[in-house]
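Exercise: predict the structure of this protein bound to zinc ion.
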Amino acid sequence: MYSFISDLYPICRSITGEGVRRTFREIQKYIPLDVHEVNSGTQVFDWTVPKEWNIRKAFIRTPRGEKIADLRESNLHLVSYSVPVRRTMTLAELKPQLHTLPDHPEWIPFRTSYYKEDWGFCMSHRQFEGLEEGEYEVVIDSSLEPGVLNYGELFLPGEKEDEVLISCHVCHPSLCNDNLSGIAVATFLAQKLQSMKLKNSYRFLFIPGTIGSVTWLALNEHRVSKIKNGLVLTCLGDAGGLTYKRSRQGNAEIDRAVLAVLGDAGSNFNVLDFSPYGYDERQYCSPGFNLPVGVLMRSPHGTFPEYHTSADNLEFVKQDSLEESLGTCLSIVKVLEANGVYLNQNPKCEPQLGKRGLYRSIGGEDAGRRQMAILWTLNLSDGKHDLLDIARRSGLPLEFVLEAADLLMEAGLLKAQKKV
Ligand code: ZN
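Solution:
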């Protein structure tokens, strides 16, 4: 994942254009992503698919003839979606177009102007303070023209039509935690799932932030009822602990599944309630959809100073963190695959477990707790509780409850109930 992020880092991505398509070609080296096109001007709910933006070069030439804020040195130097500009201007005219971070004078900020035609440059505050009076030449060789918005989609069919949505944004230029870590984890998760026999179907979306999810939802409204669980993946590579942001529903299967996985893993983690700010969960959890989609991340956006700056670079993301994030996603998938509502086939008094080899038959240091998992699973398999509920109510690790359900199924004492 780390080397994949290193390959994606130099690409100048935005919400549309060649940078996104190049990114999809890189992802296609790992998974068979379908790349869709939606024409500029397409109405998608209250939004309009914007013109396509492409950039060839951008820089400022100082009065001494020196090139600064050169796009070739950092993709962050140019405000994303800057309109074409070629003119000379005084420092006083130029300054309002320049963005810096006075609190972090060595870092370059990340700025965009997607929905208002404008232009600008970003640079370190230290460089900004050294600018001399005189005539500056501004060159932005960009195009902003009718074209397409692209998004990538991979559908992995399972036995059931019920879908798990995995969504990440693909629109940030050279920024590693927000956003390349999410792309890398989603790509490798999809690759792992491809080789598994799955009960649920899985839909992966690689989309430009906001406009991508709005567009997908507008064009796929007929499919949305199949989405039973979902996760937005972002900021999964920094050294902080894992954070889960609940879906708007708050206690959906995905919310309970992620919290069970994080709780059983034993590391510190944070839980955030839903709020209508953040990434594409804002669209999935808008009231007209209210999908059970949460967000898995490490340090939430805005809580680390490197967020949306040049310091969110290849040093800021760690292979260990990426691996733990991917492992967590796989554990969540395993829980979603195994979870279900079961019916006790012998609900009048306890079945006699001894004659079925299920009483005190499990050895090991957790024998007592594993036995309790059998009793709890039998008792609460009344058609109203799924295995996640049983784990939570019993206080037992989910793993023990899953094992108990398997044993009871084999013994004919449990039967799966179709989800209602
Ligand atoms: Zn961002």
